[in-house]
């Protein structure tokens, strides 16, 4: 490619390109190391019913321990999500840890609601994805209603979409809820809603961060909330950082919220205390959707 772009056949390889290539290679090698070293783990961020202030559940967010021992967020290994094997490897470790944590919390009588796990398109396209999740849950006795799967609009609709649609239908029919993540950022969002058994709409944080002052974002939010209501979906706003935003979203009729204002992602070691702290706000019955409102 560099050669074809060069004048008179010379190879033009700008320093910036080398930096990019090296950066990508470093990300992939970091991800590989984290997977083989079992240094990938979920952090958990609370999701809250905005009307009642009760805990709805948590979202599991991937963190990995770098060779220096610090925890890092997905952005530092972003390129690994485009690599089928690495994306699948990371996803497996997160899911296994989440299912194991949920089993421990259930055994300890900690009522956590549900855990939402992000799934990459590579995972969704891997064979027996749905069956493996269902089998993992069954084998440790965690009910399917405890798991939610977050799918982004980046998941392809055309090629391989049949396999993905089938996997989502299988999970959904067994009681795993499906959330459409980062809603409003992709070109095919409405088609996704038609094609997949979606239960939850997560509104991308870039539509939230300028509320309430941005009239454009307020109009977009109101349209998305209408859409969610008309389709009977649970709406969730991401990236709530202020009390003002939480109150605005609640008044606008958004069902759930998530963001630093409501709680930062926390490691598993902090979870028993965190879940206990939320307990007074949580209804006794986990499985009745209506009881959670
Ligand atoms: P996402 O699923 O949309 O997750 C929300 C992101 O917003 C998280 O970033 C979270 O830490 C961050 N966040 C939460 N509250 C706030 C807030 O109040 N303000 C701001 N500015 N940010 C907030 P994180 O953890 O860095 O994850 C980034 C993305 O990486 C996620 O976006 C998701 O697409 C992906 N990801 C995370 N964990 C996994 C995973 O286990 N598997 C896969 N396939 N993707 C994952
Ligand atoms: Mg998500
Ligand atoms: Mg999101
Ligand atoms: Mg997001």
Automatic annotation (TrEMBL):
Which residues belong to any copy of the EAL domain?
24-279
Its protein name is EAL domain-containing protein
Q: Can you name the source organism?
A: Microvirga aerilata
């Amino acid at each position: 490619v560099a050669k074809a772009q060069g004048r008179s056949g010379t190879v033009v390889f700008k320093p910036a390109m080398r930096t990019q290539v090296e950066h990508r290679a470093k990300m992939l090698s970091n991800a590989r190391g984290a997977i083989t070293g079992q240094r990938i783990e979920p952090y958990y961020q609370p999701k809250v019913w905005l009307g009642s202030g009760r805990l709805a559940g948590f979202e599991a967010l991937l963190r990995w321990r770098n060779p220096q021992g610090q925890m890092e967020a997905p952005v530092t290994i972003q390129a690994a999500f485009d690599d089928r094997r690495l994306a699948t490897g990371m996803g497996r470790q997160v899911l296994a840890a989440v299912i194991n944590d949920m089993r421990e919390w259930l055994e300890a009588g900690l009522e956590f609601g549900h855990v939402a796990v992000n799934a990459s398109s590579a995972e969704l396209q891997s064979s027996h994805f749905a069956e493996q999740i269902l089998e993992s849950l069954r084998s440790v006795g965690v009910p399917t209603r405890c798991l939610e799967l977050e799918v982004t609009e980046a998941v392809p609709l055309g090629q391989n979409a049949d396999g993905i649609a089938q996997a989502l239908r299988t999970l959904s029919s067994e009681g795993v809820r499906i959330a459409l993540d980062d809603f409003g950022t992709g070109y095919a969002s409405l088609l996704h809603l038609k094609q997949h058994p979606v239960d939850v709409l997560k509104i991308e944080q870039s539509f939230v961060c300028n509320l309430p002052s941005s009239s454009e974002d307020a109009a977009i939010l109101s349209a998305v909330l209408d859409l969610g209501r008309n389709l009977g979906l649970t709406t969730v706003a991401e990236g709530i950082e202020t009390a003002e935003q939480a109150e605005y979203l609640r008044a606008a009729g958004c069902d759930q919220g998530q963001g630093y204002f409501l709680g930062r992602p926390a490691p598993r070691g902090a979870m028993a205390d965190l879940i206990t702290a939320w307990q007074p706000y949580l209804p006794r019955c986990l499985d009745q959707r209506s009881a959670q409102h």
